[in-house]
Amino acid sequence: MKKIGVLTSGGDAPGMNAAIRAVVRTAVYKGMQVYGIRRGFNGLINGEISQMDVTSVGEILHRGGTILNTARSDQFKTEEGMKKAINILKVFGIEGLVVIGGDGSFRGARELSERGFPTVGIPGTIDNDIACTEQSIGFDTAINTVLDAINKIRDTVSSHERTNIIEVMGRSAGDIAIYTGMAGGAEGILIPEMPLDIDNLCKRIIEGRNRGKTSSIIILAEGAGKAMEMERIIEEKTGMETRATVLGYIQRGGSPSAADIILASRMGYHAVELLEKNIGNRIVSIRGNKIVDDDIMEALSLPRSFNQELYNLAQVLSI
Ligand code: F6P
Q1: Range 72-75, long-range pairs (CB < 8 A, 24+ positions)
Q2: Measuring from atom 13 of ligand 1, which residue has the nearest CA?
Q3: Which fold has domain 3-138+256-301?
């Protein structure tokens, strides 16, 4: 393969730029031409494509977001959109594509692969909800951003002797909540993977106060409920002053952590190596600190599990 394309799709994640840089520089190193596609699959359909070189990815390593921009494309999900996309790729002479994104983006990548267009997916999402990989690009940065926020909120919560419900992102996965709840010493972690036992949670908050605890922080995954609603219920049941914080998009921004930059760079390199050998229809992953790849179809049908051990440990340590 001599001409490849790269796009970012779905929610942006810190480290996506490092992945783009790795794809572009690896391709150039291997004597391939590489094209950047703007605005995800929408941009592909509209032909927003231009050639990239080593300088077009200079000084982006430390920047959050994605220099290629991103979108969630409804048009691409249609037969007509798909045909247009493949046609555009042919017009530009692009022989293989790297898609950096999450679950939804990989469904697009699978469709292209099924139609005979070699596509490789790189998991970039703060949610860490891709079953085949132990970590997705952006997750490490996001949990550090959330931890910083939790620590700041802790100062004011303990000064006022309150409870604070902090709602974090993650779509239908509880990973951000589990990891940050653990690292932030949260008194409760509510995730969609576990049944919600509000009475037990309130009992724990009251017992904590009776032992002299000055603050309680409850981390709520967005897939498990709404912070404002939880604030009302917990205040009612505990009789203690309770506040809610929805962290929102702050979790998706900021400079990527060293771990995310390194992960993105390794994955980007691996994706180009695959396309160089004319191998498509793969998703790049990290397992046991090794960069590996799996068939897209198989990877997408894997059941997602969550880190139950870490969740249990957090429960034990937060009494
Ligand atoms: O997938 C990343 C994510 O930030 C989720 O955690 C969140 O549910 C969603 O994207 C928000 O999407 P949007 O940017 O479309 O509001």
Answers
A1: 72/9, 72/10, 72/11, 72/40, 72/104, 73/9, 73/40, 73/41, 73/42, 73/45, 73/108, 75/41, 75/42, 75/45
A2: 11
A3: Rossmann fold (3.40.50)
Distance CA 3, CA 18 (A): 20
Question: In this structure, are residues 238 and 163 in contact, taking their beta carbons and an 8 Å threshold?
Answer: yes
> What is the structure's pLDDT at 282?
97
Catalytic residues: 127
Nearest CA to ligand 1 atom 7: 171
Q: Which atom in ligand 1 lies closest to the alpha carbon of residue 72?
A: 15
Measured CA to CA in angstroms, residue 58 lies from 39, 52, 62, 63, 139 at distances of 20, 11, 10, 11, 23
Q: Whose CA is nearest to atom 10 of ligand 1?
A: 11
Which atom of ligand 1 sits closest to the CA of residue 170? 6
Whether ligand 1 lies within 6 angstroms of the CB of 128 is answered as no
User: Looking at the predicted structure, is the pLDDT value of residue 318 above 90?
Assistant: no
Average pLDDT over residues 197-206: 96
Query: Start-end ranges of CATH 3.40.50.450 in the chain?
Result: 3-138+256-301
Q: Where are the beta strands (DSSP E) in the chain?
A: 3-8, 33-37, 49-52, 96-101, 119-123, 163-168, 188-190, 216-221, 242-246, 282-287, 290-295
Of the pLDDT bands very low, low, confident and very high (cuts 50, 70, 90), residue 130 is very high
User: 57 and 75 in contact (C-beta within 8 Å)?
Assistant: no
Residues of the chain with CATH 3.40.50.460: 142-252
Return the CATH superfamily for domain 142-252.
Phosphofructokinase domain (3.40.50.460)
